């Protein structure tokens, strides 16, 4: 029965929650709310989240900043090792993982910026302890040790820290951070699963497992001396001695390949490298195979862009991120070429691998090395690939038309992104940079025997450089 209009309103029910603040609730209003709730026909899923978390905004930002820095430094680390990784599968997978780490850094950077951290302050953040750990990780004796440090020490620790942070932060007020962490973890799961299988493959193939275990324990103790990933764990004594203290790390300059490859570096011409002609020069069949092999041999582009990322580290985050993304694209091109060779009927390892580009770029300063692959190589691809796709379609060559169409879209993006990257690397104007690039590559090509220097003043042309280096 409804209350009489002249009835005195009921007295509010007064209670206290948490022993601090009174709650004033009118009984009739609560009763009416209950009636409306019961009459509402839809029973939507109940959100199980509750308010409450361990971290303030300040503490959340402190931890996210360390996560950002770890991811950025791991991206740098992989980039510096791309030349030195011999095994094809490891080099390809590492090109993908480099981007995963830099993309995680980007996501944390954006979340920190949302929490009123200035981008300049985020990008300028440094941590000596994390740097010391990265330098030691980089001092791995070989690829198996590098993977152990990268994945089984740093990767596992980061994955655990991300899961704990997602569990411990407020799931309602800090939902954007939880979402970032869960999205990052989507990349971590397959990455760490692959790494464990790859390290086991090394052990099964004869690598001393005890050596890897000693290195793993050493790096785990070093990470523990920093208070772990978040810097808040109990700290142990740092291991001693550190390899990086005795011998500071320097990136490799020579491209390495595993024993399945036959390589050549004295030319960019596949017929010369093969020692014979497979198809008549100028024929569609010749150009078709050359295009597919060029994609497989973009394993050298993984090396190039990864190395550039290391060489320009801390100069500009956008340039670093774009280099990481291009590295991933070149990883896909390498996979495309490898699979297309199989689809075309070849064993990819029966075809010698062209090493000219990486051999020249490896020791070179980043600006001319980047200019060669971007201003000469990728621009050269864009000039010719459209006609090649049209010809493939006219010949009903579905395989070539399909892969070349995707590669063309990537190369256009790379040329555009490359302009900002080059500006980060050098103050030289375009003409001066192009000339310097041609001079340096001429010297390299002469030293490799790819061209013969017959004049006192000799510099290869743009067209010659595109052909001789092979992009």
Please give a structural write-up.
This protein is an all-alpha fold and 471 residues long. The protein has 3 domains: 7-36, no CATH class; 57-232, Orthogonal Bundle (Ribonucleotide Reductase, subunit A); 263-469, Ferritin (Up-down Bundle). 65% of the residues lie in helices and 3% in strands. Strands 1-2 form a two-stranded antiparallel sheet. A two-stranded parallel ribbon has the order 3-4. Strand 1 (13-17) and strand 2 (21-25) form a beta hairpin. The longest helix is centred in the middle third of the chain and has 30 residues, at 175-204. The N and C termini lie far apart (87 Å).
* Radius of gyration based on Cα positions: 29 Å
Amino- and carboxy-terminal Cα gap = 87 Å
Q: Report the top-level CATH class of the largest domain.
A: Mainly Alpha
What proportion of the residues form beta strands (DSSP E)? under 5%
Q: Can you tell me the overall shape?
A: globular
List the helices and strands and how they pair.
Layout: E1 13-17, E2 21-25, H1 27-39, H2 57-81, H3 88-114, H4 119-123, H5 128-138, H6 143-168, H7 175-204, H8 209-224, H9 243-246, E3 263-264, H10 270-274, H11 284-296, H12 299-311, H13 317-343, E4 353-354, H14 356-361, H15 366-394, H16 398-425, H17 430-448, H18 462-469
Parallel strand pairs: 3-4
Antiparallel strand pairs: 1-2
Helix pairs in contact: 2-3, 2-5, 2-12, 3-7, 3-12, 3-13, 6-7, 6-8, 11-13, 12-13, 12-15, 13-16, 15-16, 15-17, 15-18, 17-18
């Amino acid at each position: 029965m409804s209350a009489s209009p002249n009835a005195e309103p009921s007295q509010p029910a007064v209670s206290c929650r948490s022993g601090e603040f009174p709650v004033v609730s009118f009984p009739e209003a609560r009763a009416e709310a209950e009636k409306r709730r019961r009459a509402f026909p839809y029973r939507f899923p109940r959100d199980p989240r509750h308010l409450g978390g361990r971290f303030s905004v300040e503490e959340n930002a402190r931890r996210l900043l360390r996560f950002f820095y770890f991811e950025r430094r791991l991206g740098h680390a992989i980039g510096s090792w791309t030349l030195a990784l011999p095994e094809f599968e490891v080099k390809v997978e590492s090109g993908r993982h480099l981007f995963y780490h830099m993309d995680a850094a980007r996501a944390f950077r954006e979340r920190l910026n949302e929490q009123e951290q200035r981008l300049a302050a985020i990008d300028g953040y440094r941590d000596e302890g994390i740097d010391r750990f990265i330098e030691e990780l980089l001092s791995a004796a070989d690829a198996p040790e590098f993977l152990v440090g990268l994945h089984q020490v740093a990767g596992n620790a980061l994955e655990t820290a991300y899961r704990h942070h997602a569990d411990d932060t407020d799931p309602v007020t800090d939902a954007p951070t939880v979402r970032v962490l869960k999205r990052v973890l989507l990349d971590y799961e397959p990455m760490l699963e692959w790494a464990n299988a790859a390290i086991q493959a090394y052990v099964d193939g004869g690598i001393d497992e005890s050596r890897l275990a000693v290195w793993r324990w050493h790096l785990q103790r070093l990470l523990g001396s920093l208070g772990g990933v978040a810097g808040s764990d109990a700290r142990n004594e740092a291991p001693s001695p550190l390899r990086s203290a005795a011998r500071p790390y320097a990136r490799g300059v020579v491209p390495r390949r595993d024993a399945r490859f036959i390589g050549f570096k004295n030319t960019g011409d596949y017929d010369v490298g093969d020692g014979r002609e497979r198809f008549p020069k100028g024929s569609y069949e010749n150009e078709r195979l050359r295009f597919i092999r060029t994609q497989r041999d973009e394993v050298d582009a993984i090396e190039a862009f990864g190395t550039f990322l290391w060489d320009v580290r801390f100069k500009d985050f956008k340039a670093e991120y774009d280099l990481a993304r291009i590295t991933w694209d070149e990883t896909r091109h390498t996979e495309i070429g490898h699979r297309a060779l199989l689809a075309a009927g070849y064993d990819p390892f029966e075809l010698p691998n062209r090493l000219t580009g990486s051999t020249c770029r490896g020791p070179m300063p980043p600006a001319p090395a980047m200019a060669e692959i971007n201003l000469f190589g990728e621009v050269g691809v864009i000039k010719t690939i459209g006609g090649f796709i049209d010809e493939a379609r006219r010949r009903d060559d579905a395989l070539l038309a399909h892969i070349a169409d995707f590669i063309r879209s990537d190369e256009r993006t790379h040329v555009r992104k490359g302009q900002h990257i080059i500006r980060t690397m050098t103050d030289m104007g375009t003409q001066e940079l192009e000339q310097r690039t041609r001079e340096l590559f001429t010297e390299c090509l002469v030293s490799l025997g790819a061209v013969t220097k017959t004049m006192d003043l000799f510099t290869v042309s743009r067209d010659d450089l595109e052909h001789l280096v092979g992009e």
